[in-house]
Amino acid sequence: xxxxxxxxxxxxxxxxxxxxxxxxxxxxxxxxxxxxxxxxxxxxxxxxxxxxxxxxxxxxxxxxxxxxxxxxxxxxxxxxxxxxxxxxxxxxxxxxxxxxxxxxxxxxxxxxxxxxxxxxxxxxxxxxxxxxxxxxxxxxxxxxxxxxxxxxxxxxxxxxxxxxxxxxxxxxxxxxxxxxxxxxxxxxxxxxxxxxxxxxxxxxxxxxxxxxxxxxxxxxxxxxxxxxxxxxxxxxxxxxxxxxxxxxxxxxxxxxxxxxxxxxxxxxxxxxxxxxxxxxxxxxxxx
Length: 287
Fold this sequence. Notes:
alpha+beta; 5-stranded mixed β-sheet; 19 strands; single chain; 10-stranded mixed β-sheet; globular
């Protein structure tokens, strides 16, 4: 199953994607049906099955092409990001891959939706970069889970663009601020349930900036796969339902290119993962 948040009368509202062109508002299916993804996840398998049964045979009521999307994940308990999880990316940044994953937190104000415009002041950074990433959404609480059972705790997958102000990244010890400007974590447009992704390490991931393909890889090139990441993170903290984990970016970042490619005023960047979706962000530099 495939879900998204779209704007309806100015507010984000959960839809079930019923075809490539149409979606159905989930909260119309039955009394008390959820209007946000996090509420659907909180209801567990029973609520998901009820949504599936209620939607069976029903047509769409909103066109996907004309929809205005909000972030795929609206109210996550936390957004965790993993850095340096592809050897090519850590090498091109000149950063050493640690023996354990490099983990940092992204602030919730950074979440944005497909097709939205992300803007930032020129005075803060002119070295803003793109990073295509696989997003993982936790479905059941995960604490001290072994690797072989870690994927049982994954509810679904989405696409994330981990936008980064490189000059700030290399001037500060922590990476939270450089990646958490308003709108710097677009996600979506869709969340695909885990049963639709048999192997999260067998996905084509890519990025296009202003018409040029700049990243082209597979999630199989991760240093630590999704199962290992979930298991590792669950050792120190209970991963709560709705937690969004951004799992790192492959090589091809603009910072490492010669000449360098940074997001410019009016740039358009699309990151995608085959079978999950394509996420587009428009850029404006202020001042």
